[in-house]
Amino acid sequence: MTRATHRARAPWPTHPAVPDAGAGAGTAPTTGTGPATASGSTVTGTGPGSGPVTGTGHAACHHGELLQGVFLDADGRRCAGLVTLPLAGPGSRADFVRRTGTPPEALTVVPADRGKAARAAGLAVAECAREAGLPPSGGQLRLTGDVPVGLGMGSSTSDVIATVRAVADAYGLRLGPAAVARLAVAAERASDPLMLDARPVLFAQREGRVLEVLGQALPPLAVVGCVLGGGAPVDTLALPVQEVTDTDVREYERLRVLLRRAIGSGDVRLLGRVATASARRAQRVLRHPEFETLTAIARRSGAAGVQIAHSGAVAGVLFDPAAPGGLRRRLHACRHALDAHGIPTTRTFTTKESPDGPARRRGDRPARPHTARRPSRLPAL
What we know:
The chain is an alpha+beta fold. Helices cover about 30% and strands about 25% of the residues. The chain has helices spanning about 115-130, 155-170, 175-190, 245-265, 270-285, 290-300, 325-340; strands spanning about 40-45, 55-70, 80-100, 105-110, 140-145, 175, 200-205, 210-215, 220-225, 305-310, 315-320, 345-350. The strands form 4 sheets. It has a 4-stranded mixed beta sheet with strand order 2-3-5-4. Helix 1 runs parallel beside helix 2 (about 155-170), helix 2 crosses helix 3 (about 175-190) and helix 4 (about 245-265) runs antiparallel to helix 5. The chain is globular and about 65 Å long. Mean pLDDT is about 80; it is low at about 1-35 and about 355-380.
């Protein structure tokens, strides 16, 4: 393992590399100790030698979105954007063995069905070889992890980012978030902002750039996770295309202002209202039959609101840990009501630390029938 190995939860100790709305791809500064290259990556080792060189990368996942819609960028241009809810724990690990002297197209991926990660590996090899001043080489990419697939938790983005980091590691580089975002979008057309860790940002997922940094961190939240539709994967390509009007954009911009205020003031109730409003607007396309039941359970159990994956089946009931009434009692009432209405609960977690202590794992839940992808592990409290 080289010095450029990335950790699963904190690839960068600080966030000066967060690209802003006008940042060009790959131009953000980094926090590495080595010299910076022209595109903002950092050389972290003395340079790979001859023979096979192994690089390792990690990436986390998320728990769907707090807000998603169409917003205006700094130039007043419409831009699709989202704010994700971070989830510590599940993630992807990539190991890339760079075989010097082999052609760059000689890339193998295990499991073989990870097409987006394979594209990311090819793009990352070309860029990292150029940055390191070395000839591009082929190799083998091996992916492991426990992010559920098809639930809208960023499983493909997690694979892609872990892959890019592993390839960069094998070339003795650490790429900045802007460069990782650019490669991720090129590999899968749209990317979640997992390369930015847990910092709350409004992210243009189809362009790989930050529209706005909404604050330093989300306020403390307790989240009861669940899945809608029995956990069946959502085929986002089959969803109807919803025309976005000027009225829609004004509403999304209003929610953006409210979310900025909620994060800045630590107002969990206001954050819950924004997340619920965003989730309700998404039902025009997703049409989850349990959505009204979910929101009713949230009201009865004293929750601040609900959030969903706008491209999947995962959902969460949001609680303010500091609200009166006993957090444990409210969480228990929520889980009991969800189970009684046939909505499977998955994991209770917080944006800070668990209110109930370490999660107890139940059995694996298959990610999707008849798939070779890794099983999902969503521990429940």
